[in-house]
Amino acid sequence: MTDATVGPGAVTRSSVVRVGAATAVSALCGYAVLYLAARDLEPAGFSVFGVFWGAFGLASGAAFGLLQETTREVRQAATIEPGGQRTSPVRIGVGVGLAAAAAIAGTSPLWAGHVFADARLLSVALLAAGLAGFCVHTTLLGLLAGGNNWSEYGALMVADALLRVAVAAGSFALGWGLGGYLWATVAGAVGWLLMLAGSPVTRAAARLHTPGTTATFLRGAGHSIAAAGASAVLVMGFPVLLKATSGDLGAAGGVVILAVTLTRAPLLVPLTAMQGNLIAHFVDQRAHRLRALIVPAAAVVVLGAVGVAAAAVFGPWLLREAFGADYVADGVLLGWLTAAAVMIALLTLTGAAAVAAALQRAYAVGWVSATVAAAALLALPLDLEVRTVVALLCGPLLGIAVHLVALAKVPPR
């Protein structure tokens, strides 16, 4: 099979703008799905939906390890002489997706009863099928990012988001209830099929091969997937972790889950969507790894400070007016949750730098350490709101330290 031409070049401002625009659309669509679900379901029902939303976020977040490894491999391939063994990332993505779906379905009797309080069989089936499709989705994103095909990268993101909101809107209009929002959660996992059908550039990217064997690719991807899975627990799968450490969440849990989701989305949705940009940037700046972190980290802190103030002042009113009188949260809580989102955003940045430096093991250890610390803090005998803030604010500090130490030890190359 003939490889498509890859032209990495520098990560330009226009590429960031294009991905940023796609991210904005994706974020709005995500908010729209949450809004429709919260308006259509009472807090206890939204809690059930929120756990499934988090479960798919956890599983699909782990699949972002394929995006990270694929981006790095394609990005570095331009500096490697042709020849030797080659690997097809898309075929690996398909294989990993099918294996993951089989693992979810096969092990579901052991854990589904503890995670899904309602619509259990449908939840397991959608989780397995959705993850299989999303593995190919993230691999294709990595191929597009590695080749600087940012317009198609953004289009694939938007296709995912629009499919989700379309199904959610249908569920709201036709009264499908909880099941409709479960379908909406995974609907975007087939967006890559639409892109392959309609975009020649995307088809060319799907034919790309990277240097090395499948085993070599999988070793690197394995660390990235493990770390991305750990990051997904804190970023998207937190409702599942909260349920596992709290038992029945009830209406109060639904409010906390919605508050956590809304306060972190403005920072973490763009950062997650721009993983390809970040890794490409850090690969290009590998001679100054730590210095390359300064500007994006400063931007996160400044934007986060504005977000903390806005959440504390306007958050309670916005939550009540947008989602109904049943969703009540204190401004202090919303401000602290936004501060916790800043810490996770900084951990996401240091993790992307570690991946770009081929420090997959340190990347994984950092995220796993942060997740374990957060889980331990959630077990503290405190109120639900307090331990949620403590876990999300303090857990990431350990992971950031691991990443920075590892980056400081590696000589520039």
UniProtKB/TrEMBL annotation:
KW Iron (keyword) present: no
Transmembrane segments: 16-38, 44-67, 88-112, 124-146, 180-197, 217-238, 250-271, 292-314, 334-355, 362-382, 388-408
Keywords: Cell membrane, Membrane, Transmembrane, Transmembrane helix
A GO CC term attached to the entry: plasma membrane
Main location: membrane
Cellular localization per UniProt: Cell membrane
InterPro entries reported for this sequence: Poly_Biosynth_Transport
Membrane topology term: Multi-pass membrane protein
Name of the protein in its database record: Integral membrane protein
Organism listed in the record: Mycolicibacterium obuense
